[in-house]
Amino acid sequence: MTPQELVANVxxxxxxxxxxxxxxxxxxxxxxxxxDTYDALFNLLFEAPFCSQVIGxxxxxxxxxxxxxxxxxxxARADNKKVAVLAVDPSSPLTGGSILGDRVRxxxxxxxxxxxxxxxxxxxxxxxxxxxxxxxxxxxxxAQFDFILVESIGIGQNEIEITHMVDxxxxxxxxxxxxxxxxxxxxxxxFGDILVINKCDLPGVxxxxxxxxxxxxxRAGPDDWLPPVVKITANNGEGIEGLMKNIHAHTRFAxxxxxxxxxxxxxxxxxxxxxxxxxxxxxxxxxxxxxxxAAAIVERKRPLQDLWSLLLQ
Length: 313
Hints:
The protein is α/β, with parallel strands linked by helices and 313 residues long. The protein is 46% helix and 12% strand. It has helices spanning 3-11, 15-29, 36-46, 65-78, 133-142, 162-165, 178-183, 205-219, 240-253, 258-285, 288-298, 306-311; strands spanning 53-58, 83-89, 115-121, 147-151, 168-173, 194-197, 229-231.
């Protein structure tokens, strides 16, 4: 099957083609020499129009992100909207393996033709996502899903990469996390478009709500989006309707797909850097001249400045 045929089947919303395209994207990014099929597929998907509402779900472990995603799927399907989910799981630093357990929590949607769920291992990539997450989002957008939900690992204040890849970032916390919220003020808390308190049947809701409201008001200028603080209990579905209303309100407020367009510029720059490395760096370091010069520099027999003369040849 040619890349063009594969993309045509993705656009036709054939699950097998969608799964195959994502697998090609994942494998292609982690091989020393990406295949022509990968590059052609990526180029075709990159040109696909923006047509989906992409929502990022992030927060610390145990905040109930997967249960919340499950409820959002339920709400969207009741409105006859098609939903795709990318659930990113951490990889073992020893084996590279990943539990990929988020799909287990969403099994009741497994036979729904309007729902596509895929787990991705982050493979040690920093930022809370996998290296190929954005390309996988574009595969799902080419398949014209109404909603694409991206569930991030979200384990620390630097795990903010998700905010650059989605249209709306939902940050999930739970009662009793006052210290966590304080610690995250200088990080991911500054980027959430909607601040959610889940498990509101537990004590301590008021403290976290107060902290989140303070953060939201400190962030927002007079013309900025004021991140709402939304209280939910995902286990029984309480508050999901209000959360969805806030998600739609943010979509209407924010410039259309501006964040993702900015990320695509970053992605293009990264692609150019890889192309330059492949075209110039890799052939250079393979030469005898470089190997001999590098050895001489390490042994302090040649000055480091001689490296620049080699680069300019």
